[in-house]
Write a structure and sequence with these properties.
QsdR family transcriptional regulator, TetR_C_36, single chain, mainly alpha, globular
Length: about 160
């Protein structure tokens, strides 16, 4: 925050008034990137209904897993990253769930998807599935695997 305030030629107090804490600023930045990836992956999904939603989950996980800067952040600050990205207080997670809910509602309204659960619960599970296969290395020491995220989402929706 000190470096950013210096680059903007403002005081740290002014920067904190503008953006809140470092975690809040990182959350907003990470959400802007998440939103852009979700939008792009939604527009280019292969298929509709369960297949299309599963493709979005898998493509999103693949994009994130392929991001070297994102994984550098995870390696440098794993606790902060998981707190900002995956907790109930996370604006990234709550906004991602809302965006996935919207995708689900669109497919349901179009008659292309029969939701096995209420939309908010289903969206939450789909987001958690994606997170499970993005943060695998931090959580279990395994290798992140976007294809597993796609397959798990498709199994849930089938």
């Amino acid at each position: 925050m000190r470096d950013l305030a210096g680059a903007l030629d403002i005081s740290r107090a002014t920067l904190h008034r503008w953006v809140g804490s470092r975690d809040q600023l990182l959350g907003e930045i990470l959400w802007s990137l998440t939103e852009a990836v979700l939008d792009a992956r939604s527009r280019h999904a292969h298929g509709r209904g369960a297949e299309g939603i599963a493709d979005v989950v898998g493509a999103f996980a693949r994009t994130v897993n392929d991001s070297a800067p994102f994984h550098d952040f995870l390696r440098r600050e794993p606790e902060r990253a998981l707190r900002i990205l995956t907790t109930k207080a996370s604006l990234v997670q709550s906004r991602t769930i809302a965006r996935v809910s919207s995708l689900l509602e669109s497919e349901i309204a179009g008659g292309r998807l029969d939701a096995p659960l209420p939309v908010p619960d289903l969206a939450y599970l789909l987001v958690r599935i994606g997170e499970s296969f993005i943060y695998t290395d931090i959580i279990t020491g395994g290798t992140p695997d976007a294809e597993k995220a796609r397959a798990a989402a498709k199994a849930l929706l089938a």
